[in-house]
Amino acid sequence: MDAYGEDRDIDVLVLGGAGVDTIVYVPELPLPYADSYMIDSGIRTRAGQTGDFVALSLAALGLRTHHLDLLGDDPEGDLVRALHEKHGIPLTAVPQSAGTKRAVNLVSPDGRRLSLYDTSRGRADDCFPQDTLRALAEASRHAHVSITSGCADALPVLRAAGVRISTDLHNWDGENPYHEAFAFAADVVFLSAAELTDPEATMRRIGAHGRAEAVVVTAGAEGAHLLAGGELTHIPAVAPPAPVVDSNGAGDAFAAAFVFGLLSGEPPQGCARLGAVAGAYACTVPATESAALSRDALLAAAPR
Question: Starting from the edge strand earliest in sequence, which strands make up the sheet with 19-25, in order?
Answer without folding.
Answer: 43-47, 19-25, 101-107, 113-117
